[in-house]
Fold:
Amino acid sequence: MDNKKGYSNIVDLMRDVVNDDNFINDLESHINSRRISRMLFSMRCRSGKTQNEVAKYLKWSQGKVSKFENTPDDKYKFGDLVQYLDCIGIDMQLEIPGRHKTHLAIIHNAVFKRERQ
Structure:
C-alpha cells in the first residue's frame, strides 16, 4: 500500500508538518506577496538567460538581479521592471488596473499577448 500524499503547494505540505497557524499564515502571506517575482524568474528561465547575463545587460550585479527576482510585489520600481523585461525579450505595456484586475494579471496578459504574436 502506497501511503504517499501529494501536495499541490508548499503551504499544504507545511500544514501537515507544522502545527502552528501563525507560521502557516505568515508563510502563505510571504509566498503570495511575491507572485510577480515568481513570474519574472520563470520568464527569465524560459528566455534562456542566466542571472549573470541579465546583470551584464542591465549593468547590475548578479546579486541585484537575484534580489530583484525576490522582491515583494509592492516594492518593484517601474523603470527597473521595464528594463528587466526588455532584457529577457518581453515588451511591457502599461495598463491601469480596474477594481478587479491585479498587477500580476497585467504582467501575465502582457506575456501571453507577446507569446501569441
Notes: The helical segments are 10-17, 21-32, 35-47, 51-58, 62-68, 78-87, 103-116. The longest helix spans residues 103-116. The chain is about 60% helix and 0% strand.
